[in-house]
Write a structure and sequence with these properties.
This protein is an alpha/beta fold. About 40% of the residues lie in helices and about 15% in strands. Strands 1-2-3-4-5-6-7-8 form an 8-stranded parallel β-barrel, surrounded by 6 helices. Strand 1, helix 2 and strand 2 form a beta-alpha-beta unit. The longest helix has 17 residues. The structure holds 3-methyl-2-oxobutanoic acid.
Length: about 260
């Protein structure tokens, strides 16, 4: 098991695991100083490419962004989302996960659960590929964004799913939009760490989409705390630039090269 994975496992019941998403080098370089895990999420489909959902993002596009992210990372664990359709069966999943690792030198992959594909996880893990699971609201398989595990029966189903993901060999599991009670039951039950998004403090770590928490994406459900309002800052800067260009205030002597 690679050292970086062992470090994540050791944090269970000791210290919280900090995760964020990145799609490019400059962002990854900043995140790397403060994060344990950086995820190249297929959320780039919505956030960067303006798609309605994550279904059309390709393995190639994810690989290219990961190559950029990798250049900004020194210490964090780099996990990459397997895009929709890239793991329909064990054979294709293994081929594509190996390709992602070969192209990007990432540390592992994330696979969304459809409550059936546990054999995909075990196939990848048996091929020495670290896997992060993902349950609850899983955009690749569920159309509607809603709270998950909000009845006793649904919470028990999620716990069963999480146990099977752990049994298949995943090293951690994302819990998306679970009720605090469901998240607590799973976090207390599993030996592997849980990473929450919209699933309360009852998780071993937290993840957010970086563009959301920086106030850039326009997608701000209740669980997205905005730590910055970059859209406003960018708008201010662009407005000023536009005005200075129009009024011939930019560039000044300081901004071009005089003959020597
Ligand atoms: O694609 C993504 O960014 C994700 C996180 C929200 C967990 O899967």
């Amino acid at each position: 098991m690679i050292f970086k994975i062992r470090k994540i496992l050791n944090k269970k019941n000791r210290s919280k695991i900090v995760c964020l998403t990145a799609y490019s080098k400059n962002t990854a370089k900043i995140l790397d100083r403060y994060c344990d895990i950086i995820l190249v999420g297929d959320s780039m489909a919505n956030v960067l490419y303006g798609h309605k959902n994550t279904s059309k993002i390709t393995l190639n596009t994810i690989a290219q962004h990961t190559q950029s992210v990798k250049k900004g990372i020194q210490k964090s664990l780099l996990i990459v989302d397997m895009p929709k359709g890239s793991y329909p069966n064990k054979k294709i999943a293994k081929k594509n996960a190996k390709l992602l690792i070969k192209l990007t030198k990432c540390d592992g992959v994330k696979v969304e659960s459809n409550n059936k594909n546990f054999n995909i996880i075990s196939e990848l893990v048996n091929s020495q590929i670290p896997v992060m699971g993902h349950i609850g609201y899983t955009p690749q398989f569920k159309k509607k964004f809603k709270v998950e595990g909000n009845t006793k029966k649904k919470a028990e189903k999620l716990l069963k799913e999480a146990r099977l993901i752990e049994k298949a060999g995943a090293f951690s599991i994302v819990l998306e939009c679970l009720t605090p009670k469901a998240a607590k039951a799973i976090t207390n039950d599993l030996d592997i760490p849980t990473i929450g998004i919209g699933s309360s403090l009852n998780c071993d770590g937290q993840i957010l989409v970086t563009d959301d928490m920086l106030g850039m994406s326009g997608f701000y459900p209740k669980f997205v705390k905005r730590y910055a309002y970059l859209n406003t800052n960018i708008e201010k800067a662009v407005k000023k630039y536009s005005s200075e260009v129009k009024k011939s205030k930019f560039p000044t002597n300081k901004n071009f090269f005089n003959e020597s």
